[in-house]
Design brief:
This protein is mainly alpha-helical and 145 residues long. A two-stranded antiparallel sheet has the order 1-2.
Length: 145
């Protein structure tokens, strides 16, 4: 073979090797750029989701504030109602006043006597010696059953 042919073959081989190395470098660098592009896209999606959550949180906090305000108003009205009820319940009712009037005796009427747990006289069923027999000496004896 001739030296010129070897030079041409060597030049062709170097050209092909350079093209291969360039393609490989482009592929590796481009893959990194594609990965960067995907990361940027994911970051943009996450930022959008975060913004939506912040908007939802603001709406939720506003709703909680409204509910707390309505709860405060309802508790205030409940306290007012309890106060009015306590004033009306503290006053004597008509039914209670009628019962008190019926329980107090009118002037000139004798009050009924309190019930007693003993009997008048000396031989009633509630007397202390009821059912006891008199012994020889006059002391009462307990009954025998």
């Amino acid at each position: 073979m001739d030296e010129t042919n070897i030079s041409w073959a060597l030049a062709a081989a170097c050209l092909l090797a350079g093209i291969g190395i360039g393609a490989l470098g482009y592929h590796l660098l481009n893959a990194s750029a594609g990965n960067t592009q995907r990361l940027r896209q994911r970051l943009a999606e996450r930022e959008r989701t975060l913004a939506e959550l912040k908007d939802g949180l603001g709406d939720s906090l506003e709703r909680i504030g409204q509910l707390a305000e309505s709860l405060r108003r309802e508790s205030q009205s409940l306290e007012e109602e309890a106060a009015t009820a306590s004033t009306t319940l503290g006053a004597p009712s008509l039914r209670r006043q009628a019962m008190v009037d019926a329980a107090t005796p009118a002037e000139g009427e004798a009050e009924p006597s309190m019930p007693r747990d003993y009997a008048d006289g000396n031989r009633g069923t509630l007397s202390e010696d009821f059912g006891l027999k008199q012994g020889e000496e006059g002391a009462p004896q307990p009954p025998r059953y």
